[in-house]
Design a protein that fits this description.
The protein is mainly alpha-helical. It has two domains: about 90 residues, no CATH class; about 60 residues. About 65% of the residues lie in helices and about 10% in strands. About 20% of the residues are buried.
Length: about 170
């Protein structure tokens, strides 16, 4: 699949979460989103100006006040999710695996709020229990996006699977 075909396909299947997406379809669309975001951020900076913010000693951050990159990101959020969902289907996994890092973050936030709510992190009681739970959770949080990235980079499952026919074997 070519760059232009991938963009057309992903935008045509804007909210289609069923079926399968080939590896080339997904990664060409990701490249389109990255390049579009960079170009529109530069256009935002040229049209609307930038602000330099000191974030830490010796570190600065450049922020733009323009809406174009933000609107592009919002417009491509759903097709990026649906393409990723279909890509997971192509590797034989449920699309829910794409949300694995988000699920881990929500669980970690729940544990932190629980321990913060009972005061375990404030007054030092049950810090050992909190550390026993939070350290592995932080490790899982660090690994989960890498795992999803690895799944997205896997080759297509050969033949038809429960999510549909192999996109390489279907002539469009």
């Amino acid at each position: 699949m070519t760059f232009a075909n991938a963009i057309r396909t992903c935008l045509r299947k804007y909210v289609t979460f069923s079926g399968r997406a080939s590896r080339s379809e997904y990664w060409w669309f990701v490249l389109f989103i990255v390049l579009g975001s960079i170009v529109l951020a530069l256009v935002d900076g040229a049209l609307f100006g930038t602000t330099i913010v000191d974030t830490a000693p010796g570190a600065v951050s450049v922020q733009t006040d323009g809406p174009l990159a933000t609107l592009f990101s919002l417009a491509t959020l759903v097709p990026a999710l649906s393409a990723g969902w279909r890509r997971m289907h192509d590797t034989g996994r449920s699309g829910l695996y794409l949300l694995y890092p988000l699920i881990v973050m929500v669980g970690l936030a729940g544990v932190l709020s629980f321990f913060g709510g009972i005061g375990a992190l404030d007054d030092g009681t049950d810090v050992g229990l909190a550390a026993f739970i939070l350290v592995p959770a932080m490790i899982i949080l660090a690994i989960s996006p890498l795992l999803v990235l690895w799944w997205l980079a896997r080759p297509s499952q050969r033949g038809a699977n429960s999510f549909g026919p192999n996109p390489h074997e279907v002539h469009q």
